[in-house]
Automatic annotation (TrEMBL):
Protein family according to the UniProt entry: Belongs to the 4-toluene sulfonate uptake permease (TSUP) (TC 2.A.102) family.
Primary location recorded for the protein, binned into one broad class: membrane
Protein name (record): Probable membrane transporter protein
Organism: Promicromonospora thailandica
Membrane topology reported for the UniProt record: Multi-pass membrane protein
Transmembrane helix keyword on record: yes
Pfam families noted in UniProt: TauE
UniProt key word DNA repair: no
Record key words, sorted: Cell membrane, Membrane, Transmembrane, Transmembrane helix, Transport
Compartment(s) of residence: Cell membrane
One GO cellular component, as annotated: plasma membrane
Origin: domain of life: Bacteria
Sequence intervals crossing the membrane: 7-31, 43-63, 75-96, 102-121, 142-169, 189-222, 234-252
């Protein structure tokens, strides 16, 4: 990388760190920047996953109070996403790049649709329940399955995986948005750490890009956690849909 490129990657890392802890679409910022500086798609994706681990770690630390509120849910989210990401990392290494490039924009759009429609889906689910209405603070078996699938996607590509986890937790529980944000950030961290352990051994990586992303995301992740605590549900959904749809459209054209 020469000229403006290192600064762009560093800035992308900072911005991606903030997004990791807020709307959960970090890779939608950092991944296109890595492509713009000339990295091949699969190399860019693996390097992006490794480089954003510090951001997810600092974001999870910033949300430590929220994560302590529901320790059982926190443990389940951590384990399910870690397990799922192993399969996702294997898929990324096994599938040809053409498949990777073709499915990414559609996965991003699906993530945005889930988050945008979450209030209506949640209301419909409540109406179809026969038992008395009560707040759901534990994960049902179905929610656990979707958490594993989200972890698999996180290990495969990761862009929008935080959005998908927010949708899963939003539909499967009645936890406050700040707690959902905390759990979503932890899920991203778990998936990225496991995928990183695999990528470091078997994947082609750009260590220059990883170092710049890591430095920026470490600061951005903690800043994002402070912002995420104060974010309203409406603002959260609007930002996710706007940023996600924009990124997906840009990747399709």
């Amino acid at each position: 990388m020469t000229g403006w490129e290192p600064l762009a990657v560093l800035g992308a890392g900072f911005g991606a760190g903030i997004l990791t802890s807020t709307v959960g679409v970090a890779s939608l910022l950092s991944f296109p920047v890595l492509l713009a500086v000339g990295l091949p798609p699969v190399v860019a994706n693996a390097s992006n996953t490794v480089g954003l681990v510090p951001g997810a770690l600092s974001g999870s630390f910033g949300y430590r109070r929220e994560l302590r509120e529901h320790p059982r849910v926190t443990a389940v989210v951590l384990i399910t996403c870690a397990v799922g990401s192993v399969g996702g990392a294997a898929l990324l290494l096994a599938l040809p790049p053409g498949v990777f490039e073709a499915v990414v924009p559609w996965l991003i759009l699906l993530s945005c649709l889930l988050v945008g429609a979450q209030p209506w889906i949640s209301r419909w689910l409540r109406r179809t329940r026969n038992e008395p209405a009560r707040l759901r603070h534990d994960l049902s078996p179905a929610t656990v399955v979707f958490a594993v699938l989200t972890g698999t996607y996180g290990g495969y590509f990761g862009a929008g995986s935080g959005v998908m986890m927010a949708a899963v937790l939003g539909l499967g529980t009645d936890l406050p948005v700040r707690v959902v944000n905390a759990l979503k950030t932890l899920a991203v961290m778990a998936a990225n750490v496991v995928a990183t352990a695999i990528f470091v051994v078997v994947a082609d990586l750009s260590w220059a890009a990883i170092g710049l992303l890591a430095a920026g995301s470490l600061v951005g992740g903690y800043v994002g956690a402070r912002v995420g605590r104060r974010m309203s549900p409406t603002v959260f959904r609007v930002l996710v849909v706007v940023v996600g749809v924009t990124a997906a459209v840009l990747m399709l054209v």
